[in-house]
Predict the 3D structure of the following.
Amino acid sequence: MSKVKCDHCHLEFRDEIMIHDGEYRFCCNGCQGIFHLLKDEGLESFYSKIGDTTLSPPSEAYEASSNFDTQAFHQRFVTTTKQGLSQVSLVIEGIHCAACVWLNEKALHRMEGVIEAHINYTNNKARISWDPETVKLSAIIDMIRAIGYNAFPYDASLQEVRANKERKEYYLRMAVATFATMNMMWIAVAQYAGYFTGITQEIKTILNVAEWVLATPVLFYSGWVFYRGAYYGLRNKAVTMDLLVVTGSSLAYLYSIYITLFEKGEAYFDSVAMIITFVLFGKFLEVLSRKNAADTLDIIGKHIPGEVSVIEGENIRQINVNDVKVGDLILIRTGEKAAIDGEVISGEGSFDESNLTGESEPIFKRSGDSIISGTTSIDALLHYHATKDFTHSTLSTLVNLLENSMSNKPRIEQLANRLSQHFSSTILFLAVATFWSWYFWPHSFDRSLMVGISVIIIACPCALALATPVATLVGLTLGAKRGILFKSAAQIETMAKATMVVLDKTGTITQGRPEVVRATYEAPFERSLLLSLVQSSHHPVSRGVSDYLQSSEENLSCGVIEEANEIPARGIVGRANGVMIAGGNALLMEDMGIDVDSSTDKSVFYYAVEGKLVAVFELRDLPKSGSAEAIHTLKASGLRVVMLTGDHQSAATRVAQEVGIDELYAHLTPQDKAAYVSRFHEEGHIVVMGGDGVNDLLALANADIAIAMGSGSDIAIEVSDVVLLNDSLTSLAEAHAISHRTYRLIKQNLGISLLYNTITIPLAMMGAIIPLIAAISMSFSSLLVVGNSMRSRWMYK
Amino acid sequence: MESWVVAMMLGASLFLGGIALAAFLWGIKNGQFDDEKKMMNQVMYDDEAELNDAARLQRKREASEQKKEYRPE
C-alpha cells in the first residue's frame, strides 16, 4: 500500500482514504480548506517555504471566537495604545517552522485594520495591534484559525514586561563591561611588560589615559547597580557586598586618576573594570533565578471567573461577579466554574469539588444542596440562588487568605548574605586600619593610601559574589535534568535546611484517581459491551474500570451498544442487542432491585446484565509507585514526615500505612491544613509542603518551601517554589538531595574565597601587592570558585 | 617610535571598537536579538514581496493615525 502526502500538512496517509481534489490530495476537509484559502489569498508560496516540515491538521472544535469580543475579555487582556489602537498578546498554537510565522504575519498584515502583527518564533507569542473601528478581535482570531492555527490570550502586562526589561538592562550593562574589560586587558599587557622591562613615563601615561577612558563607563554605567544597591543598603543601615564593591572600585578609580595626572606609581584601572565585570555577572545569574511574589498574585486572580450568567425573568444576562447580589438567580452550565456560593433551586448534576476538598469523587447536587464557589460543574445544568456576594464567597475568601500568607511568607536568611555583611565590614575596617598604621609609621600619604586601597581590591569580592550564584545555577541545572524546577535559587538553600516534610494525600502520595484493586466475575459476560458502557462516561470510577479492562484483556475493542445514559450519582444504563446493561454503584443496583452487600469503605462498581449481577469491581486510590521508598529516604535523612488530607480517616490511615507515614491528620479543610503548617512553623520547624490542588494552596503558601506536582492545578504551581514535572515523590526526595549538595557546594565556594582572602589580605597589608598580582589573584580566585562548581556538575551527571 | 603614534593608534582602535559596541547596544535595545530563532531565518523571507508588505503596513498605520487626527472631538 503506497502512502501519499497530504498537500497541506504533509502527513502521510493511504491514498484511498484521502480526499482527491484534482491533482491535489488532502487528509481532511480542514487541510483542503486551508490550502484553497492560501491559494486564493496568493499565499501559496508558503508551501515552498516550509519544505518537508509536517504541520498538525487543523482542529475543528474551537470555543466561539465571539468570546474574544466580550467586555470582560477586553478588560483583562486588551490594552489601548496612545494612537488609539488596541493591542493584545496571544500565544499562537501550531507553529512548527519559520514559514508558519511568516504565514501568520502575512495573513494578518493583509487584513483591513490590522496595523501590526509581530510573532516571536522562539516562544510563539504574538503581539497584534489593530484599529478597533475597522476590525474586531474575533475576526483576527477567526483568520488565525482559518489558516490552521489557534490563538490563546495571555496577559503580558506585569510579569513578563518587567522581567524582560530588567534582563535587557543587564545585557546592556554586561556588554559594555565585557567590551571595556577585554580591551583593557591588552593595554594591561603593555603596562605589565613595561613594568618589568622598563617603560617611559610618557607612554605609561598614554596607556593610563586609555584605560581611564575605558574604565569610566564600566564603573558608572555597568556598575550603577552596585551604587544603587549600596545606597539602599545604607538606608536600611546594612553594610552590604555592594558597598564593599562600590568603595573598593571607586577608591581605586579615584586613586588611579590621581596617579595618571601626577605621573607616579601604578594605576589600578584594570582591577576596577574586572571587579565590576565579574560581580555583575554574578548578580545577573541571581536575577535570572529569582521570582516575584507580586506576579504570582496576578495569576491567581485570573482563575476566578469574571462573569456569571444571571437569570432575570425570561432573559439571561452576563454580569460581572462583583455586581451579583445575594438572592440573584444564577445559571451554571456544564464545565463552568462557580464564582459565587449559593443554594440549588432547580436542576441537578455532579460537581467536581476535588480542588477544594481533595476528594476525588464528584458530588451530586440537587435542589436544596449548596454550591461552593471554586467548584466546577461536571455535567450539571442548574439554577441557584446566591447566598453570599462575591467578596464573601468561599473562593475569594480563599484568595484573600492566600494573598495574606504570601506576603507574610517566612524568609530564611541566606548564608552568603549573612557572611558578606560581616566580610564587608571587616574588610573596610582592615583597610582603614592599614592606611592609618602605614601613615603613622611614617610613610608618604600616597603610599599609605595605595596600600589601604590594595587591601580592598585584593579582598576580592568577586569570588565571594560568584560563590552562591554559580553554585545555585549548578543546582538548578541538576534539578532541571531530572524534571525538578526550582523557581528561585534562594529556595535551594532553604530546602537544604528543612526539618520536616508535609504531604497532601490525594494526587501527591496517591495517584488521585481510583484504580481497580479487585475484580470478581459472578457470571460470564461480554467484556466489550462493558468497555463501551464505561467509556461513555467521564466519571473517574468509569475511567478506572475502563483502564482495568483494557490492561487485563488483550485486544479488547469497544462493542456496539445502542444507547448509554449517565444517571448522576448512580452510574450508566445502556442497551445492547436489545438487552439492558447497567454499571454503577450500590444505589443503582438497589434502584434496579438487585441485592448487593454495600458495607465497604471502598468505591465499588457493579455491572449487571438484564437485571442480574455479573461483575463487581473494587476501586481504590492507590499510592504512586515509589512513594514508599521516597518517604523512607526522606525519613532516613532526618526529616519528620507528616500527611495532611481532606479525606476520611480510614482511607487516610490505610494509605499512610502503605507508604510508611506514622503521623497523619485527616478530614481537614484547606484552612485547617494551613493552620497545621503554621503550627509546625511555630514549633520551630522549617517546613516543606508538597501538594497539588487548590485545597492545598493555603498550606503551600504558608510553608517555607512549597512543592507542587506538575500535573496539579495551575494556581498550586504558581504558588510553589518547586515544581516536580514527573509528579512523583521520588523527585521530591531527589530535590531534597540536590538542595543538600548545592548547599554544600555553596559552603565550599565560600570557604575557598575566604581562604584566598586570609592568604592575600596580610600580603596586601604588608604592601607587597602590585597591580599585576592584584589582577591575577582576582581572576584566579574567581576561576577556582567556578571550577569547583563545574566539578560537582560533572560528578553528579 | 614616537609616542604620539601609540596614542593615535590607541585612540583610533578604541574609537572603532566603540562604534561596534554602540551598534551592538542599539541592536539589543531595538529588540533585534529577542527572537534568536527568527533572526536566523530572517534571510529566507527577505525579497520584494516582504518589502511591499512592509510598505503597505506603513501606509495603513499612517492612514489610521490621520483618521484619528481628523476625528471631531
User: Anything to note?
Assistant: The radius of gyration of chain B is 22 Å.
